[in-house]
Amino acid sequence: MTEAYSTHENFICSEVNGSYADFNEKFSHLAYEWSLSLSEIVNALRKKGLILEYLNEFTYSFYNCFPNLEEIAADKYVLKHPNKKFPLMFSIKATYQPESKLP
Question: pTM of the predicted model, to two decimals?
Answer without folding.
Answer: 0.67
